């Protein structure tokens, strides 16, 4: 066992150990770093030295309390860049830290496993929160009792196939953009507002993999899509965008726009806040049904 080899080494009193870091982004990019003065390699990853990546002490506790720490690093062109941080490429990235015997990398032990949290940047560097695996215990689980749908369009609960031509468009950009407002020319096969609350994703170019929710979809034929926040990367004419129809989570949209009401994950007929004071009215049909208005 690799940990047993490491423990035997530590018992000697004179040790040859260092730390190795692995950051794996959601787009599959893996970056390895070490505080040793030479490169190390294991598990198919090369851990580069002199990266400027370091960390405060990792506090581990028993039970279900959350293990958090922080990492510090230097922005560099060949590793972690300011442009990638601003573009959100490190959002949700996973992190693993090992204590490694540098002259025998088979002797190692995982000290931390988790994900990157908030990243702040300063003069030539950055500081990132690291969240342990128990961080997920802070997330809300289960369904919420509300009128609107709790599923995400196209996920396992929604079950709607968003890759249909009527609901998804791959478009080669023909006009300049600031990363937040996009003009799509000659798009006439979709109703006005069809993509509002939908998703815009960049498939090619320097911004490939970046995406955000569409705030508004204005016009027909030539339409203007505005995102809630800009994509912080260079996007130029010729880049390919993928635009997916939006869903406002209401029962009417699910039934009329997507014909998917059987999979609706909300409670459209739940009583409103004033249901206790609802009474029959002489100008309404009172057929014994719900009095909720």
Automatic annotation (TrEMBL):
Signal peptide: none
Domain Bacteriophage phiJL001 Gp84 C-terminal: 193-274
InterPro entries linked: Phage_phiJL001_Gp84, Phage_phiJL001_Gp84_C
Protein name, as recorded: Putative phage protein (TIGR02218 family)
Species of the source: Yoonia maricola
Lineage: Bacteria, Pseudomonadati, Pseudomonadota, Alphaproteobacteria, Rhodobacterales
